[in-house]
Specification:
Elements: H1 18-28, E1 44-51, E2 61-65, E3 69-76, H2 77-85, E4 92-93, H3 98-101, E5 103-110, H4 119-133, E6 137-152, E7 163-164, E8 172-177, E9 182-189, H5 191-202, E10 206-208, E11 216-222, H6 235-242, E12 245-261
Parallel strand pairs: 4-12, 6-10
Antiparallel strand pairs: 1-5, 2-3, 3-5, 6-12, 7-11, 8-9, 9-11
Helix pairs in contact: 2-4
Length: 268
């Protein structure tokens, strides 16, 4: 689910030969076509951000609605940061305690009600909201650390539950956990998407090294904490036996998000 936002055109004239001159004369008689202009990233034109008035044990909730509308209730700023950067708490530093303890209600709409069609657009919108209303400033740092490589358990042999997606099916990925069982259902997603989704489940970044092309469908269930009494196997076992995949420990470059500055939201 990606969208190309830039177009590159590189032309170089090294020798001005008669052939080049003739070509230039011909092109001068033809209409000039301007290159496509990259579209600016989506931004919220209107955004209401208010402290959440608790009336009990309301669930935290976030929804993207038609017409470019984003609605969040009882949501912490740390949650918004996680969404914007696709990162986890252990790869984030510098956020003050109130970003965990205080919750907010948000109702925002994109300029011209532009629809949000990709995860990348949604992340950019949340980042712009943090920068505009919470005065977020940040930088990134790189360091070496432990990662997993997502690989085929047996070369060229995917597992029985890993099915090629039906053409035209909608991309979707959901992960639900009851504490004793986690269910992941995937439709029309790539191995790169799966690797990104497994990061939170596996406890460290996951890089795709399967060389599997195309998109896939599957559903798997596992026990987050496998014990002798568990009805379901571990994530590692399910990946190997059902999807024909394995998580191989490796070293990789880890990016840490450092929060330099963040403030309570500006007035509406």
């Amino acid at each position: 689910m990606t969208m190309t936002r830039s177009f590159r055109t590189l032309r170089s004239l090294v020798l001005l030969s008669p052939l080049v001159i003739a070509s230039l004369r011909l092109s001068a008689q033809s209409p000039v076509v301007s290159p496509p202009v990259a579209q600016p990233p989506l931004r919220f034109e209107v955004a209401s951000v208010r402290p959440h008035q608790s009336a009990g044990d309301e669930p935290s909730n976030r929804r993207v609605l038609p017409g470019g509308r984003f609605v969040a209730t009882a949501t912490t700023v740390r949650t918004l940061i996680r969404i914007a950067f696709g990162t986890d708490d252990n790869r984030m530093s510098g956020a003050p305690s109130w970003t965990d303890n205080e919750t907010f209600d948000i109702d925002a709409t994109t300029a011209d009600h532009a629809e949000v069609t990709t995860p990348q657009q949604f992340q950019q919108l949340i980042l712009s909201l943090l920068e505009d209303r919470f005065q977020l400033k940040f930088h990134r740092e790189q360091k070496e650390g432990a990662v997993y490589w997502l690989e085929l358990n047996k070369p060229g042999k995917p597992g029985p539950a890993l099915k090629p997606s039906t053409p035209g099916s909608e991309p979707n990925m959901s992960t639900n956990s009851t504490g004793s069982r986690t269910v992941m259902k995937v439709t029309n997603m790539s191995m790169i998407d799966l690797a990104a989704a497994l990061r939170r489940q596996a406890g460290r970044p996951v890089e795709d090294h399967t060389d599997l092309k195309g998109n896939f469908d599957f559903q798997i269930e596992w026990s987050p904490e496998e014990t002798p009494d568990s009805a379901d196997p571990s994530l590692f076992t399910v990946l190997k036996e059902q999807l024909g995949l394995k998580l191989q420990s490796a070293k990789g470059n880890l990016e840490t998000l450092v929060i330099d500055e963040i403030s309570h939201p500006s007035a509406n």
